[in-house]
Amino acid sequence: MTQIPSKEQILEWVAAHPEANSKRDIAKAFGIKGAARIDLKRLLKELEAAGQLERRRRHYLDAEKLPPVTVLELLAPDGSGDLFARPMDWRNEGPMPRILYIPRESDPALGRGDRFLGRLAPVTGEEYQYEARLIRRVTASPNRITGIFRKDTEGGRIMPIDKGQDREWRVRSDATLGAENGELVQGEQVGPKNRMGVPWARIIDRLGDPSAPRAVSLIAIHQHGIPDEFPDAVIREAESAKPATMKGRDDLRDLPLVTIDPSDARDHDDAVAALVEEDGGATIWVAIADVAHYVRTGSALDREAWNRGNSSYFPDRVVPMLPEALSADLCSLHEGVDRPVIAVRMRLDAQGNKASHTFHRAMMNSRASLSYEQAQAGADGNPDDQTAPLMDEVITPLWHAYGLLKSARERRQPLELDLPERRIELTPDGRVKDVKFRERFDAHKLIEEFMVLANVAAAEELSKRSRPLLFRVHEEPSLAKIDALREVAQASGFTLAKGQVLHTSHLNRLLAQSQDTDFDELINISTLRSMTQAYYHPENYGHFGLSLKSYAHFTSPIRRYADLIVHRALIAGHGWGKDGLTADEIERLSETATHISETERRSMAAERDTTDRYLAAYLSERVGTEMTGRINGVQKFGAFVRLDETGADGLLPIRSIGQEYFHFDPDAHTLVGSDTGLEIGVGQRVTVRLVEAVPVTGGLMLELLELDGKAMPRGRSKGRRAGPGRVSTKARLAEVKRATKRRRKKS
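RE: above sequence
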């Protein structure tokens, strides 16, 4: 006789299988056949009548806000190491409840994104609403996609916006979440692919109109999973903070400290001052906002800051690490108001070497909030009304100290990359107005050198005191990457010596060779690509790029969690209060280092994708226009071109170059025409036509018109080799996506 499952067993099955829970699925799962199906139908109706199940079309779903047993997805640990989870089938309009996952010692290890069947217990008086215990693991983290939803008679499909994906996902009619045609959505894979190899998905979030102004950065924020809304508890905590007092602080309010930032900066987390010494040296002060005073270990603010890891910057918005009540107010060193800081006093000798340093927990009052342009104009002898009174006490001493630091830098020989920074200007409604390159002043370099020296002092101070901290680590590049750089250099007519221990001075000689030549930008970009990625670590492995033995991030605790850790370490090391680095934080330093290194890379990817999409939007109105540029990468699938005017990268697909076959020479990094022998390689000047610009993906497709000033020759047709006119729009888009994905993997 068939054993009929209990109501609890049915509820567990329904919760664990939100995409396969029809009556037929349930019967199959429990082996119910024949007449026993009548009893199953009766049980389902009883559960439905009791409000424990809700029938939608032919499927059953939990009707309560959260049932006692449900499928959960594990989130990343918060700043205190606590694990929270989110319910997988939350359909109510109210805010999603917070669920604390409490693992037992016998439970298997779960990671971020893993799904499990959990038993929930409501709680009161906490910042979360439920506690969850593991029943069993369901699946690992599913594949996800962000794209444009297109309706059809069977439900719809998701067209990916990621240049690394070119295959659409199918969505059944009962898994659309009510998405409208053309809406930006986020979906996740459910079940196996269909017979044509197309994955099935269900929509888990609706993100709105992708063509709306300011939607570009929102796409990247959601696509990369960057938290952009603060929980209510975090906002309440920030808004209830009170200004710091002088208790336990040194008084630096008479020092001529000023902030120097971009003209549109909303927060100011570092201030500088300099005093000229009689021996020709200088005393430098760098004062940094005392964020640790307001963001205490284990608080809601701290957990959210740890979760975010850093602020993310986009042309139209900032996603801050801390709420504005702190980042733009109490922690911002505004002109004319007292602000708590952790400051470092550094003594330079006449050669610019740091002779000594001391750290202070203090109170300051900024003399002025200056822009880079203002400070530079003052140093150049053109002060305005604000900088004129500051020349003798502020500007002149700062530039004297900067001159000393420049001489020390020249001896140290850090990597001297010169990469122009693009600035995307938007109209008030969020559309691209212009793309320019930021002008770089000595004022920028002055602040950079002051901050580098302060970061070195922090690392040395904590190491001397044997205090745990997070170092900023940058290891030397691999031999394979240096060999690849050497090939680019040789193809451009320069040399990078072999057979010796690599130092930054060797790379600087290569950069000097290319300076003021047509290959200047190419060599700078290629050198940057050869570098390893910097990261955070509790152990000190040095900083290759800066040519420093010890380096830690200390100067930006408003926007980087790593700096907050260093501040807390300094507080604990000097015995300045009870808000220093705790034993629990020290125990989790490796975990924190890995986490914030990942959030930093996440932000970089989102910022890069946003820039690509804005550039494509800007250029979409110029399709068909001829443009100049330089080839900055060659692969077997085509060549990449850096456009002169905007700095955007576009693809020349190999299938669209001329009317002949082109073979890829991996040793020379060239494409060689089989009929004409024409070589296409890195560094060559080109004139191209913009064939396609796709804002939603950021992809640009180009057609080659001239190579080094000569019109492209037309070789003999090779039958199936398609020329530019015979490549469909869909094929070109797919080529852009595949090519960009392969290129990013290589870099």
